[in-house]
Amino acid sequence: QVQLVESGGGLVQAGGSLRLSCAASGRTFSSYIMAWFRQAPGKEREFVAAIGRSSGNTYYADSVKGRFTISRDYAKNTVYLQMNSLKPEDTAVHYCAAQLRGPLSITRPEEAMDYWGKGTLVTVSS
Question: Do the beta carbons of residue 95 and residue 36 sit within 8 Å?
Fold first, then answer.
């Protein structure tokens, strides 16, 4: 089993920044695609960003492109999501996820994720 633990959520004003962290267990961290998803109250879970296993390739939802940056530290088994220029519509529970095999799905990435964290809440006030 792979354990994923998110941290770094909190309350910020619009225009502010937060950095989320996701600590992963296991020695095969480098073999996982890592991703962030979010879910606002009453809405479906949506893809936010992903980073490749070792290529360093990154992928972003159009809604966060240019504002958010995903990165990973292999030595620490940790993936990060730097969130800048936050908007009230970014308010959501943010989940870290890991995909063990196969390529990232462009259309439905959440369906291929094998492990999920319990989430961390990000609240952006006006």
Answer: yes
Here the tokens at position 106 are 């462009």
The CA distance from 33 to 40, in Å, is 23
Collapsed DSSP state (helix, strand, coil) of residue 80:
strand
**pLDDT block averages, 10 residues each, the chain of length 126:** 95 98 89 96 96 93 98 95 98 97 93 97 97
pLDDT of residue 92: 98
Residue 87 contacts residue 14 (beta carbons within 8 Å) = yes
Pair of tokens at residue 9:
């959520």
How far apart are the C-alpha atoms of 47 and 100, rounded to whole Å?
A: 17
